[in-house]
Design a protein that fits this description.
- With about 260 residues, this protein is of the alpha+beta class.
- Helices cover about 30% and strands about 20% of the residues.
- The chain is elongated, with a radius of gyration of 24 Å.
């Protein structure tokens, strides 16, 4: 009798079933990690491009974020000036505020408004004040309020600003660039100096893939230690702009930029 070697139909079906289960378990994670890596790369590129644009504007117009707008009472439409700078310095910059989706976008970080985490300098006010080191208020600025809980560190002589970002879509003007990324900025921003940026609403978002989903603000569970897993990386990154710089505005955004 001739022996035949092979698999029965039942064995083949069982094997295919096992492969299907394993694939169903691993493919979503693989896709998530791949998207996270792509979002991270696009975020770094967009941040670099925005910083190059403002440096170019300084070279050509001698104007950076600190010179945009006057004061809140007599504001000279700082938002319009920001739009002009983006249009002049960014290739194929197109305003898309009116056409941007107004639903399906999550502007919260872990079910709460993103918190700016921004360091400013303190100055020595002398021994007659307690404490001696106080949050620096630049000359001519009268409406800078001390953020709740902000105190001066005795060693570094700096204070950490902690302010909630707006989660209202209507507060942001949105621009799309040639590579498909988008930059949102708060239309109430004005005179974005290093010391007053957070108080003057000088913040916004980098949306690395435009209107395409998931349209969710980045949140990294272990961001305080500078760590962010690829599976946690989404497409909306909070940023703050001041002086000659656009930089991450939250722990999570910093963890993605500077983490491994």
């Amino acid at each position: 009798m001739t022996k035949r070697f092979g698999f029965t139909l039942a064995e083949v079906l069982i094997t295919l079933g096992i492969i299907g289960v394993v694939a169903a378990m691993t493919i979503p994670t693989l896709i998530s990690n791949t998207n996270g890596a792509q979002f991270k790369t696009a975020y770094k590129k967009a941040l670099s491009t925005l910083n190059q644009a403002i440096l170019m504007n300084i070279a050509m117009e001698d104007e950076d974020f600190s010179t945009i707008g006057d004061d809140k009472a007599t504001q000279t439409n700082a938002g319009t000036r920001l739009s002009e700078i983006l249009g002049q310095r960014m290739q194929s910059a197109t305003e898309i505020t009116a056409s941007y989706p107004t639903t399906g976008i999550t502007l919260q970080e872990n079910n709460a408004a993103p918190k700016l985490d921004y360091t400013i300098n303190c100055v020595n006010k002398g021994s007659t004040e307690s404490p001696n080191w106080q949050i620096e208020i630049p000359a001519g600025v009268t409406d800078l309020t001390k953020p709740d809980g902000a105190t001066c560190d005795a060693t570094t002589h700096t204070a950490v600003i902690n302010k909630s970002m707006s989660t209202e879509m209507g507060d942001y003007k949105k621009y799309s660039f040639a590579d498909g990324t988008a930059f949102w900025y708060n239309q109430n921003a004005y005179k974005c100096t290093d010391a007053t940026a957070s108080n003057n609403d000088c913040y916004g978002f980098i949306d690395v893939n435009g209107a395409t989903g998931p349209n969710s603000v980045i949140y990294c569970a272990d961001a305080a230690s500078g760590s962010c897993d690829s599976s946690e990386i989404t497409d909306l990154f909070p940023v703050i702009f001041h002086g000659q710089t656009v930089e991450p505005a939250t722990d999570s955004a910093r963890a993605v930029l500077f983490g491994k």
